[in-house]
Amino acid sequence: MLSSRLLPLLLLVSASICYHNTEASTHWLLNTNGQIIPQLTSPFYLRRSYDLIAFLNQNVYKQKIDLIIAELLQIKSNLTAKMNNLDAYTNELTNKIGCIPNFYLDESDILSTIINMNYINRITVPDKTSTTTVSASVGNSRAVASKGKNPSPKCADYLKLDFSVASFDHLDGLHNRTQLKMAPEDMFKSLEYYIPSVKSPQALADDLRKHPTSWKYHTIASYYWRKKGNAREAIECARRAVVLAPRKHKDIPLLSMGTILQRSQYLNDSLVVLRAAVDHEPSEPENQMALGNTYMLLSEFNRSFEAYKAAESLDSVYSEHNDYIKKSINCFKDLKINLLTMERLLQDIIPGLERYGSLQKEFDEYHEKLDREQAPLKTRVFDEAYSKQVDFLIQRSQICTTRMTKEKSEPILSCDFISDVQMLMEDFAVEILNNYVDLKKELINTYKINSLGIYKKIFVEHF
């Protein structure tokens, strides 16, 4: 009982007494064999063994470091488990990407453009309703004389049309039609042989001038502007065509209007218009396909497949296209789920890593204070009889140099040594973890940007 009380006092006294030539250790430990041995890496092995304040502060720093190390070890274990899980999903990518070359689908592959000759014939074959008089549904519409030496097929130059519910002007896309933007539809170049005026703006302008109330010429003019990628002019022509067309042909300009909205990313408005096109003519496969494409872009896959199936039942030419889309969805669904899971796991790692980095800075701060008062490891006195301690120092040699002395002709090897705390610092290298996270981010973003195609925008993972 008495010895247990005296031991702390003896340690304190030994740390406070200074003799210039002393060879006493400032910290001893009782091992399992009952031997008291000096601890060379003790934080209480001070440069100034007589400094009581430094001795007391060392205890505070040591306790703080112990707490930090315990939390660092816990976080590192947790991060390691999460990184191993993330690596498993990374390895799975190899199995997921095999189908990409065969079933890649870009947004342009799912957007609608008429290429069906049966549909085109409905426009090109003359009928009694190819021109009409301006009806009451047009409202304040009136013919406008084309001006200028080089007339263009701008439909507003030939027929005025103010706000009209019949042309769906209540929709946001139509209300903001001057802001619509779309890419050129190169597929319309294949129509130039069947509809020459699609190629000739002069001929189309002449037709509009002669027949300003013809729904067909306004529809063809909308194709002309879609081919140019001018959504603003294309929608103006489509509006007029929708108002002017008789009921049995109204689905044709409705399809053009819905497609312009679709390509301009007004998908909900496109859905309203294309549903109207299908309502007017459900037996037209082009209408069903366009509706299915908009449902697809809105990630409503079940309704999309219903429309695709309807189009396929009307014309088997669409079966191959629809089969390709189904296989593409199955391929990219697995890939996207894998990438999103990786992204979620990576985001789950970041908070722990941030705390890890913060703790490491705190660790370095307290270690610097602890190390400032400690005697260098290589200068500490030890009994050569303790062979394990000699081996201990040899194993911890870090930087060694040789020097000559006057007393001896042979060079002397001098080394710096790594303490326990310094070794732990190397284990907690936050830079390695940060590099790991950066590489994973780059990998995920590369696949999402370059490999997902249309599936960057649609929620195939919910299918």
- Order of helix and strand elements from N to C terminus: HEEHHHHHHHHHHHHHHEEHH
Assembly form of the protein: single chain
Round the Cα radius of gyration to an integer and report it. Answer: 40 Å
Q: Terminal Cα separation, in Å?
A: 74 Å
Proportion of β residues?
Answer: under 5%
Molecular shape: elongated
- Number of separate strands: 4
> Number of helical segments?
17
Strand order of the largest sheet: 1-2
Backbone structural class:
mainly alpha
Detail the poorly predicted runs.
1-25, 129-147
Protein name: TRP-phosphatase
InterPro entries: TPR-like_helical_dom_sf, TTC17
Keywords: Signal
Structural account:
The chain is mostly helical. It has helices at residues 2-16, 52-96, 100-103, 107-110, 117-124, 172-175, 201-210, 215-228, 231-244, 251-263, 267-280, 285-297, 301-314, 319-373, 387-395, 420-427, 430-450, and strands at 28-30, 36-38, 397-403, 412-417. It has a two-stranded antiparallel sheet with strand order 1-2. A two-stranded antiparallel ribbon has the order 3-4. A hairpin with an 8-residue loop joins strand 3 (397-403) and strand 4. The model is unreliable at 1-25 and 129-147 (pLDDT under 50).
